[in-house]
Queue: 2 jobs
Job 1
Amino acid sequence: MRKTKAFKEAVAQTLAELAHRGVTLAPSTVEDTIEKSVSTVAEQLRIQVRSAWRYFDAAALADRLAHSVSAFEESSTEKGVGQAPMPPIDNPELALVLAGVPDSLAQTGGDLYAVILNVAVNAWMAGHIHGEDDCAGCDGSRGPAGHDWQARMRTITEMQPNISKWFDRDVWTRAVNDAGYAVTRR
């Protein structure tokens, strides 16, 4: 289905309709939604998929998607769910996570999934350590600094004295390039 002209046109129309509504979604999300919608119509009406396209309405789908996005944002705000706070720009743990990306790219042979997974786990652990210093399950698992967050930051800074360089986009990009990789948009 995804290789058909009708499908490609439906995706383009829906993305344009979403843009008119001020909503941005990943094309893959829109593609998945369209595929599921058209398949469901074909299944429910017991018709072929190519016949189900006559029931497709990009504007109506964009309205439903925009409403879903809006409802999600409202429910998240009501429940106090927001964007996680960014650590200070000179945070040593964040510097280590950023510094690990070029090395991780080189070690994994450019496996972007493995690199992102590594960054996510390290960021999660850093947040866990910072936010749950009183976590009973972590007793004895933090090395000599234990639960003293400030002591851990000093230790990291001593190991990597120039942490601020990793917050310079150009330095980070050069390190990724030196590892033999580049991130480019298709």
Note: The mean pLDDT is 79.
Job 2
Amino acid sequence: MEEADLRAWMVRAEDLPGRWRSSERPTGGFRQQVCGVDIEPTPPTSGDRVRFSQGGLGPFLAQYVRLHDSARVPQRVVGDLQGALQGCDHYTTKGDGSGQSARFRVEPLQVDGLPDHAVAWRQTATRGARITTDMVLVAKGEGLVAFVSYAVREDPNPQVVADAVAALERKDLP
């Protein structure tokens, strides 16, 4: 996929209501298991990420896009997560090779305007910095799009991910 096509998937600060600005690119990988579901079961053909903030302590919004050879992969990931999250209240990451793992408490998240081809949940780290994040995964054609919202001193506002999903849904994607 050409870089211009991949950029079409990315939300811009001006697509969001409020005073958002570009922030440093998020770090870390996209690949992990959530409640037993691998959210990147096959290597993507391309991907990108971006982050926005409204201030030094947040709120922050990160977007990750992974494009696959087939629409089946994003649809399967979202469908599997929709089912898995119904009976899951926590999960543990395997870590980054340093032996460190993280455990997250998981709860359902109501997001206004969430399309059928999406899944949302709130997760809170139960060790170390107890950051709470709102997570949304959207399957859209061959793309799997993740939105992650968090703030440093308070719980995230679900409206942030709702606005991001609405901005994505307005895009005329390739």
Note: The mean pLDDT is 89.
